[in-house]
């Protein structure tokens, strides 16, 4: 009788190559996720240390200590309240998204997974609608093109969150997983933007950027912040389904490149953007 450790039971030829390529793909995705989780934890830390602390102390004007932030506006009670809700829920949605992707939570605490999933989707919805109101209703934008590009991100969050929810209700769990991953990446569009800006700006000394986020590089980076991660995800999902080990290896390589770029951007974002507000 063969056991799991019996060499005769191991797949040979194409089967073995496919398993090795699957493992490589999985490890590359895990590496990206670990680096992203560190960067998202730093983002959460900054939000709590800056916005959380100022809000608790009642120093709403202190929100604006961060450059180019129109958080507090004297006399705009509704706008200030909605800004507070937006930035404080940013912690919930970012943390909730991270927790959804931890396999141990999914496997060992399925009830927690279901509840964080519900909280994540409701919060993502509120954040996207609130963000759209802050942008166009308040209004808060650095340039019209930057407002349009972040609004597209908001619309994608709404579409993906609705789709993921619908698929879960219909118990189509494979489709649910795909839409939930898209929603996770779209929700992190604002985080990706900061990471992307902090790769581009130091490497090119700010080529194509200006202070209103309307230079050619700014426009490309704002679009890439959600389009590129979504394209990489589509490649990853296809590679998972593919029987071709070369396709899996190629996407694993793409993920390793993405991990390096994400890591660089996270270091830049922490050192340049967030550190002064994390202490
Ligand atoms: C769901 C994911 C989102 C997260 C986690 C998030 C997070 C944040 C954070 C942390 C801030 C404070 C700015 C900073 O200190 O860097 C902020 C501000 C803001 N967000 Fe969002 N946001 C999200 C989605 C959106 C969307 C989709 C829009 C627009 C459609 C939007 C519009 C805004 C606006 C207008 C501000 C004020 C910016 C300023 O004063 O210059 N957000 N957001």
TrEMBL record:
Protein name as it appears in the record: DUF2306 domain-containing protein
TM ranges: 31-51, 81-103, 115-135, 141-162, 183-203, 219-239, 251-274
Keyword list, A-Z: Membrane, Transmembrane, Transmembrane helix
UniProt KW Phosphoprotein keyword: no
Lineage: Bacteria, Pseudomonadati, Pseudomonadota, Alphaproteobacteria, Caulobacterales
Tree of life domain: Bacteria
Species this protein is from: Caulobacter vibrioides
InterPro entries: DUF2306_membrane (IPR018750)
